[in-house]
Design a protein that fits this description.
globular; about 140 residues; single chain; 2 helices; 8-stranded mixed β-sheet; binds zinc ion; 3-stranded antiparallel β-sheet; Metal Binding Protein, Guanine Nucleotide Exchange Factor, Chain A; mainly beta
Length: about 140
């Protein structure tokens, strides 16, 4: 039985609102160099099974690497999502969810590149580990 649930969120100005099918109330913390530039340090993201965005034309997509795009709000500049075109992986930024306080950290990725780290017993994957996993 799936524990997936529908959750809602919006960007800072509210021009972008979304409905997301979330498989688990878990978030990943990414320390990669691109996320540092994009989010000023740690990047908190939630894996999504299905995403429906309202006011899609307010989303700007930026091709951040060969296989991935990042979306942000044209009006307020909030970072909204990361999409890997190769793996079809979709992640949405945790801070945009209405119920973001109820999520727990599942892993830190690219942990050895981090500007700082989080306390807790979650998993940590270094850049080398991530390369082995195909990222
Ligand atoms: Zn906005
Ligand atoms: Zn990253």
């Amino acid at each position: 039985m799936s524990k997936s649930e529908v959750m809602y969120g919006r960007c800072l100005c509210g021009d972008i609102e979304f409905e997301a099918l979330v498989p688990a109330r878990e978030y990943y913390v990414c320390h990669c160099n691109m996320c540092q530039k994009w989010s000023s340090g740690l990047h908190f993201s939630v894996k999504i099974e299905k995403l429906t965005i309202r006011a899609d034309d307010n989303m700007n997509m930026f091709q951040s690497s060969e296989h991935a795009q990042r979306g942000f709000c044209r009006r307020c500049g909030s970072n909204v999502l990361y999409r890997n075109d190769k793996s079809k992986l979709y992640v949405v930024n945790l801070g945009l969810f209405d119920q973001r306080q109820n999520f727990t950290a599942v892993a830190e990725i690219f942990s050895d590149l981090g500007l700082c780290s989080l306390e807790g017993s979650h998993k940590r994957f270094s850049q080398k580990d991530m390369t082995k996993l195909g990222f």
